[in-house]
Amino acid sequence: MKIFSFLNEFSKDQNLNNIILKLCSSAIKISKSIHDDDYEIEKTSLNEDGDVQKPLDIFSDKTLLDKLRIPEVAAYCSEEQKGIVNLDENGNFIVLTDPLDGSSNIEANVSIGTIFSIIPKNGKSVNEAIFQNGNKQACAGFFVFGPRTTLFLTYKNGTHSFFLNNKSNTFELLQKNISIPEYTSEYAINSSYRRFWHKNVLNYIENCLKGKDGPRKKDFNMRWVGSLVADASRIFTRGGIFLYPDDKRKKNKDGRLRLTYEANPISLLVEQAGGKATNGKEDILNLTINDIHQRTPLIFGSKEEVDTFLNTE
To answer: Taking the CB of residue 46, how many other CB atoms lie within 10 A of it?
Structure first.
């Protein structure tokens, strides 16, 4: 089933459907550029949030912004922009994106992607609507640019995946109503920060490492790609838990990932697939947003495993 047929069947909101199709068009252009163009990968700058910005980051951001200049979109917000980009004042939706997640892995040819969140204005001004919590998202998803280009999408009616058919240049349904496996023996965390972890994180990982001889009574494998979309894609397929907690470093006291355009969309997808997402204390989707570039700890994956983490002291 081609994506436009799927959208017409699963959503009656044509404005929202049109935005999704524009995002798909952007992803196709970005995917082709990644595979075909010779970017100056060593040429870098800093974005407004102080992160290293590569030419492909800038290209992806511009591609999305250009494609989303449509009547349905009131405003655009991204990791690469300083603030809100106002578009059509009569638009009903705001689109928030991480235009190119994992771009630090470009040279290593690791899967990277685009994450997006679509929130309704709900009769509010753009400046008010953009601070609605994650539960108010109308739609969320992410594209993965890997061996093949895929899309994970939710309209809050389950999580579904699609793949890019390069022959027809369209996205087609891959799996409807994904269910994250309830039980797991895989975890993903950057263990190089072990010396900075808080006690509960350290104890949780120690229990996993003890395997069959420890309190968990089973062996675990560690997986860490360093690309949020790649790690999330694996969890939707095989289950597991992803941990990017806060730690004792001053720069990471509030977590590292962005709430509005990384944690919120991933968390909505996870919960719609039967999983769980938390900052370690509260559900991600319930968190109050105070700044569009706000950071947060993020732990998500198989519900039972996330609960086990939360119950570890």
So the answer is: 9
